[in-house]
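Regression report. Comparing outputs from two consecutive submissions.

Submission 1:
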Amino acid sequence: MQAAAARVRDRLRAAGRRLKARVRTSRHRVSGWRKWAVIAGQGAAGFVALFAVVNLTLSLSTFRGEDPASRTAHELGVLWFSTTDGRSTSDTAFRLVHGGEVGPNPTAADIRAHFERASEGGTFLLDQVMIDRMQAVNGRIDSRVMPPGVYVGAHALGPDDPPMVWVTKWLAQYLLFPRHAYILVVPAQGEAIAFSASQEGKFTNPVGDRQQLTARLTPFNDTAYDFPSSGEALHEMTIVSRDPAMVADAPTRLEAARHNLEAQDAAYGLFAPNSNTVVGCILEGAGLMSPKTRSSTLLALRAPGMGATCP
């Protein structure tokens, strides 16, 4: 065993020596500091390529459900048909993306039945194409089109405005594995509400310190911070509670959490504390997520900051 380990170490040392020799003797059209600048640039490009490959692999291999191929086709269809400038997605988009599941002209009851089935399987998608149809059929997002419950939503972050969105929506979905999380509450009566945390400066009409970690509790509609849009067209949803008492009490609890967060006056952190940290702390405090799950490695990659110390 020791001999085998020694051979491995010798091979690694030899590989290191060969790499150093190759760098020293590599032929470039430039020399001196320019040569090292080229080498550094090549190394940076390699790192970016490796980062993209790792993220793409994770994006296509985890949280894909029981039928990854169908899931990917669904995502590609939504991204292709997503619209900008507040325009609704087309009837053609709905028919091609969702028609096979709910029919080309579903009622509110048909849509709710669709989400009843989807929520039983764990994580499911709520996308811009479906949201547009839900609003067209029902006028708003409520329990007539979604089962009552407390949901955790997660989506990629990106701009909504052209021309950048036509590129960034694809890159954010597949080449960046991390997601931004929020909480959605669909009460038995009344409009759905969303709890969104972020930098104060990211919200509409910011007040005070723009770097402060803060939150909003708003109706789940086009004005909400976390609402399916052109740059964030795909939301992964997980229902974490169907308990009627918890669902009814959720708005009050979330409003209290929002006030408590503002009182902490914590600065937003890229890795922590951030929006995912706030969501994780709320879920753990409500008994909807265990400390072990909140600090899991996979969740740390998918929702960076989720397992960090609460602000």
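Submission 2:
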Amino acid sequence: MTALAPISAPSQDLPSLIDRAASMLSGAKSAAEVLEAREVAGLAYDVAKRAARLQRAKNAHDDLVAAAHRAQAHALEIEARAKRRLADEYDAAQERGEAQKDGRPKTVSGGNGFTAATSTELGLSRKHIHEARQIRDAEAADPGVVRRSLDERLERGEEPTRAALRKMVVDAAMRGLRPQRSASRRNPLYVPPTPEQAAWRHVTGTFRAFAEWASDENLALARKGMREARDTPFHDLDAKAIAEGSAAFTTIREWFDAR
């Protein structure tokens, strides 16, 4: 693993630190670069956690504590995405014989005496690998479980912590290991949706839910809330997420126009 690049003073503010972690992960081309992104996301989480504790100690306004909690959630989501990629990278390395499967030194046959690296040599502990696989398996069993779990804690005013996320991830991963339910007894003709059908239902469900919510009254409230949030630390991240979502909606609309 390459050494983590020094973080300059301007990057120490949370929004910049989180944005850096996200950019590093999206541009990562190797396991080492994914590890770097994970480290930066972990640093952002630690900084946000300390900020939240400091604000509570000062009896600061709830909005400041909530902003720090949102930063923790953003950092945890990026960290979780990095761990998912690391799980895939490590398993692929094992299949190629570049990483050991049982922790004992092993010379790769036909590899001119090349010895597969241990997880420690790759910058990962067994615990890290286990957690990374759990997150990957949880997302496979219940897509979006990480983001939903974090959002649920934020909505309840609770701090999004690694421990809380780990518990929810483990529960989701265990659900994925259970046998698939048989067709509904109430409807013997029931056929589970394909991944493509499930994805489209997710899109249409999202659109319907938003369309039902987006009354003139609710939109007026949202616009007022947007103006009030302009000076908050994470307004730029919210604006970026809305822009990305808008671009996705435009793409979907183009599918209809192209029919």
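Expected: both submissions complete independently.
Actual: both completed, but the second showed a warning that disappeared on reload.
Relevant detail on submission 2: DSSP finds nine helices and no strands in the chain.
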